[in-house]
Specification:
By secondary structure, the protein is mainly β. Helices cover 7% and strands 46% of the residues. The longest helix is centred in the N-terminal third of the chain and has 5 residues.
């Protein structure tokens, strides 16, 4: 499949903030535009990132800085 990536591949990676290095959470869903392009990631926030248990955060695709083997770095 070459450079293609599946949603399940993204969901297995931790979302990490490049601002402070803390884990934001894990991907639970994506928002896709009408033309099939990922617009944003829906992240279930971990207890350290959110003051509320299991809240969700929408991370715009433009805020994704790097996708690594085990993590996705985001600027939020």
């Amino acid at each position: 499949m070459g450079d293609l990536m599946r949603l399940s591949d993204l969901q297995s990676k931790d979302i990490i903030s490049v601002n402070d290095g803390k884990k934001v959470g894990s991907i639970i869903d994506v928002v896709v535009s009408n033309d099939g392009v990922i617009d944003s990631l829906i992240v279930e926030c971990g207890k350290f990132f959110s003051r509320f248990s299991h809240s969700e955060l929408e991370v715009k695709w433009s805020d994704v800085k790097k996708i690594g083997e085990d993590v996705i770095l985001v600027s939020i």
